[in-house]
Design goal:
The chain contains ten helices and twelve strands. By secondary structure, the protein is an alpha/beta fold. The strands form two sheets. The protein has a six-stranded mixed beta sheet. It is elongated and about 70 Å long. The termini are far apart.
Length: 286
């Protein structure tokens, strides 16, 4: 257990903000934004994040700034995720993590070059929510338990912990639940991933299914997914990675289809029989 978190004062970045969020959610302690003393750096009951010149998980020190310039991109968030035993899962499940590592350790110019985009594109992708949270965090010397900012950061860290700790279990469970359909239409074979409705179905089945496909190496082989509708007793049908041969507006006139998105990438049906679901998939194949 730790009794407090210390991180640097002044401007805040996504890596130190999220690292603090995780530790706040894990330990329920306040955050102090100031330079630590040497005694605090040496105290294993104080987490020192993104400051202090030391990376020593046994002493709860998570600073990356002393790493050499050619060190693989690792930021304070990376080090906290490693300490929590979640780093490998985060790299596999959070597409945003590696750009955060690059941006914090290499800066915007090298990061945009690595991503293969113009420097200005990074600014266009910034969220006003993110900017507001960074500003509020940077403006505090101390974030005490129970304050509105602490509660918000605790939610963010808690949600990320819940996602990372639960998604691996969900993906492992999916491997025993899903089946793969091959539906013939003319000369084409339509490959679909199907998740039946059963006790314990998850809140976001399509998201977990997509991650499962990526982690088991089948993402490029499957064109669409069929999964239990969270808002009804039927099923959702969606194309995978915006596969161009599917257009679910083609089935919007069917009596058992109550929603088809105007862009054609998803539909909802009250149908529950597998034969009918296969028929709807074939009808949506353009």
């Amino acid at each position: 257990m730790i009794k407090q978190i210390i991180t640097h004062p002044g401007s805040a970045h996504k890596d130190d903000f999220l690292a603090c969020c995780l530790l706040m959610a894990e330990y329920g302690v306040a955050v102090h934004r100031r330079e630590p003393s040497q005694e605090e750096v040496a105290d294993p009951e104080i987490a020192v994040v993104d400051v202090g010149g030391s990376h020593d998980p046994d002493l709860m020190n998570f600073d990356h700034h002393q790493f050499p310039a050619d060190h693989p991109p690792l930021c304070a968030l990376s080090l906290v995720l490693q300490y929590l035993g979640l780093y490998e899962d985060a790299r596999a499940l959070c597409d945003w993590l590696e750009p955060v590592e690059w941006f914090d350790t290499r800066g915007p110019v090298q990061t945009s070059a690595w991503l293969g985009v113009e420097r200005e594109t990074l600014g266009k992708l910034q969220s006003t929510i993110e900017l507001s949270m960074m500003r509020r965090f940077a403006g505090q010397q101390r974030i005490d338990v129970g304050t509105s900012l602490w509660e918000t950061m605790n939610w963010i860290g808690g949600d990320l912990l819940h996602y990372l700790r639960g998604m691996r279990e969900r993906i492992q469970a999916l491997s025993t639940m899903v089946t793969f359909w091959e539906i013939a239409k003319g000369e084409d074979i339509i490959r679909v991933m199907f998740l039946p409705r059963m006790e314990g179905n998850y809140d976001d089945p399509s998201g977990a299914m997509g991650r499962y496909l990526r982690m088991c190496g089948k993402e490029g082989e499957i064109f669409a997914m069929v999964y239990p509708d969270r808002r009804g007793s039927g099923y959702g049908l969606s194309r995978l990675n915006d596969y161009p041969r599917f257009d679910f507006t083609r089935i919007k006139g069917e009596n058992d289809v109550h929603f088809a998105h105007a862009r054609g990438f998803v539909a909802k049906t009250t149908a529950t029989e597998e034969d009918r679901l296969r028929e709807l998939i074939a009808m949506a194949w353009a």
